[in-house]
Amino acid sequence: NAGVTQTPKFQVLKTGQSMTLQCAQDMNHEYMSWYRQDPGMGLRLIHYSVGAGITDQGEVPNGYNVSRSTTEDFPLRLLSAAPSQTSVYFCASSDIWTVDGYTFGSGTRLTVV
Amino acid sequence: RKEVEQDPGPFNVPEGATVAFNCTYSNSASQSFFWYRQDCRKEPKLLMSVYSSGNEDGRFTAQLNRASQYISLLIRDSKLSDSATYLCVVTSSGGRRALTFGSGTRLQVQP
Predict the structure, then answer these.
(1) CB count, 10 Å around CB of B16?
(2) DSSP letters of B47-80?
(3) With an 8 Å Cβ cutoff, is A105 touching chain B?
């Protein structure tokens, strides 16, 4: 099984550019989420989804949009990149009916210059 | 105050040592608790869930004290391969199921 697949692994953007970080899972998980990880701050929740067509904001949603048109995919869009969005982004998924932990993708390292 | 607080370390221990990490959480409604392991520049991976009765997985023992809102992880007979950052993680109540992460405790096991 592929698990959770994130693309791209690395990206450099110029300030003001837009882009989409892709996340796909093949485990039929209802719950998917996006986190960013900055040095010394741990992982912070950006957006999450409990199923196709349902999304909600997390702790740090500003500057990001998400959509969930299928169970498998949960893309994260940066509308107008800013240097403050330089971070490592992780997508994670889980079965909504269990109390098990999440499965994470391998991450996207984004630098905004 | 952070929702989940951990000592950032680093904890530098020799091989074979026993080391303990602690974590406190502020939301008394938190329902599920986990320890994750994160290697440098990699994604977090679930190490173990934490139950009120305490649970053990080989050299690893986790404890939860709901009254004190405190979670611990004990690693016995440390190996070089245990060197990593250990993340304390809790979930909130209700349907959101979001994970709240501590900043992590770095462990360096030395030969």
Answers:
(1) 10
(2) EEEE-TT-EEETTEEEEEETTTTEEEEEE-S--G
(3) yes
Say whether B43 and A43 touch across the interface (CB within 8 A): no
**A10: exposed, middle or buried (C-beta count within 10 Å: 0-12, 13-18, 19+)?**
exposed
Per-residue pLDDT of chain A (113 residues; tens, 9 = 90+): 679 999 999 999 999 999 999 999 999 999 999 999 998 778 999 999 999 999 999 989 999 999 999 999 999 999 999 999 999 999 999 887 666 678 999 999 999 99
- Residue B27 banded pLDDT, cuts 50, 70, 90: confident
| CA distances (Å), origin B28, targets A47, B33, B93 | 23, 12, 9
Per-residue DSSP letter, A15: T
Q: Which of A88, A43, A36 is nearest to B102 (CA)?
A: A43
Of A84, A91, A83, give the one whose Cα is nearest residue A58: A91
Interchain contact, A90 vs B46, CB within 8 Å = no
| Tokens found for residue B111 | 């030969």
Report d(CA B101, CA B93) in Å as an integer.
Answer: 15
Instruction: Inspect the interface and report whether the beta carbons of A101 and B36 lie closer than 8 Å.
Output: yes
